[in-house]
Amino acid sequence: MAILYNGDVCVVQESQHRTPGNLRAFVQATLRSVRTGKSSDVRFSSTERVEVVPLVTRKMEFSYKDAGDFVFTDPETYETVTLAPEVVGDAANFLVENTTVTMTFVEEKAVQIELPAAVVLTVVEAPEGIRGDSANNVQKTVTLETGIPVQVPLFIKTGEKLRIDTRTGKYLERA
Fold first, then answer.
1. 2-53 and 118-174 share one fold
2. Residues with Cβ < 8 Å from 16, sequence gap 6 or more?
3. Which is the CATH superfamily of the domain at 118-174?
4. In sequence order, what are the residues at sequence separation of 6 or more whose Cβ sits closer than 8 angstroms to the Cβ of residue 11?
């Protein structure tokens, strides 16, 4: 959700409702400013009112990386949106061409992207499994096309496509 706080539109990244001992309840929230991109921890009392700003979500496709920035295209209107690495965050580890993401906009500015639960990535570097390593669930580290290392079973070879969980970054299965 997004709120208007101190004259600035902020995206609520995390919130907790707390009721300490015999004190009044409050909400502790982490807000990220849409204008500046800075995060801050804010405490709201139970009597405070906040103005909610409407969010718009759209399906977008990752097109390419341009000098550090990430360019996404709307598949219906072919409109492009360029995002800084700070907005993309850890999702950059799973973005390959034509990956469909859900992008959240506040006042026509992209503030967050959400990846699908799993993506298919290609192995670019896989060391050979050592013969005789057949103990329970032995794994090796391979490098994927986005550059991230992942633990996989010994039988995975260079060039294979793997399904990777985007929440944990772990190997799920061959694709």
1. no
2. 27, 28, 29
3. Nucleic acid-binding proteins (2.40.50.140)
4. 1, 2, 31, 32, 34, 104, 106, 111, 112
Of how many residues is the chain composed? Answer: 175
Q: Which amino acid is at 90?
A: D
- The one-letter amino acid at 152: V
Digit-coded pLDDT (tens) for 49-67: 888 888 888 899 999 888 8
Q: Is there a contact between 86 and 133 (Cβ–Cβ < 8 Å)?
A: no
Q: What is the CATH number of domain 56-114?
A: 2.40.50.140
In the block, residue with structure tokens 């399904």: 163
Question: Quick one: pLDDT band at residue 140, thresholds 50, 70, 90?
Answer: confident
Most distant CA atoms of the chain, gap in Å: 67
Cα radius of gyration (the chain): 21
| Domain boundary assignment for the chain | 2-53, 56-114, 118-174
Q: May I ask the CATH architecture of the domain 2-53?
A: Roll (2.30)
**Among 108, 132, 123, CA closest to 164:** 123
Structure tokens, 45: 């009392």
Residue 112, C-beta contacts closer than 8 angstroms, at least 6 positions apart: 11, 87, 103, 104
Judged against a pLDDT cut of 80, whether residue 37 lies above it is answered with: no
